[in-house]
Design brief:
about 40% strand; about 170 residues
Length: about 170
């Protein structure tokens, strides 16, 4: 009986890879093509943008999908998990929801990667690009609600972005 099992594993290795438990790629499957990165757009510095959700599903037939979900990259600290970060275990057909939001600490373009590593034999690593822009809040000058941008000269009460230099007024 043991030799039949060994032959079965050997046969599977010729046609399809198997993991240490003898599960083939069709038995454990995370489809990275179904997942896409996300641009959170502009978010005020010191605030958090709206949460974005992804659903991971073990599309395999019998095996258990295990892995870890992390945020990586130079600006990873400006993004945070709201749901489902860290280790996960999914039986065949089961799903796991991951939520992330963008919370910039400084102005400017920010980028990170949502990394999903797993025991899926043909897609063991999924990397989703995350981006967002940190914007400074508007600064109120003399209580008037009129935005001033670009080369506008502030000659009276106005709002200007706090991270924008005020043009010099002449004449």
């Amino acid at each position: 009986q043991r030799s039949k099992f060994t032959r079965l594993i050997s046969y599977r290795r010729l046609s399809e890879p198997v993991d240490a438990n003898g599960c083939s790629a069709s038995q454990i499957d995370l489809n990275c093509e179904d997942l896409a990165g996300f641009d959170f757009g502009p978010v005020l510095v010191g605030a958090c943008g709206q949460e974005h959700l992804w659903t991971l599903t073990n599309e395999g037939t019998t095996g258990t999908l295990t892995g870890t979900i992390t945020l990586t990259g130079a600006d990873a600290g400006e993004f945070e998990f709201t749901l489902g970060g860290g280790d996960f275990t999914l039986a065949a057909g089961a799903s796991h929801t991951v939520g992330v939001r963008f919370c910039p600490d400084a102005s400017g373009s920010k980028a990170a990667t949502l990394s999903i590593s797993s025991n899926d034999l043909d897609e063991s690593q999924c990397n989703l690009s995350l981006s967002g822009i940190g914007r400074m809040p508007l600064a109120m000058i003399d209580g008037v609600n009129e935005p001033i941008y670009g080369d506008s000269c502030i000659s009276g009460p106005s709002y200007i972005p706090a991270d924008t230099q005020q043009p010099a007024c002449t004449g």
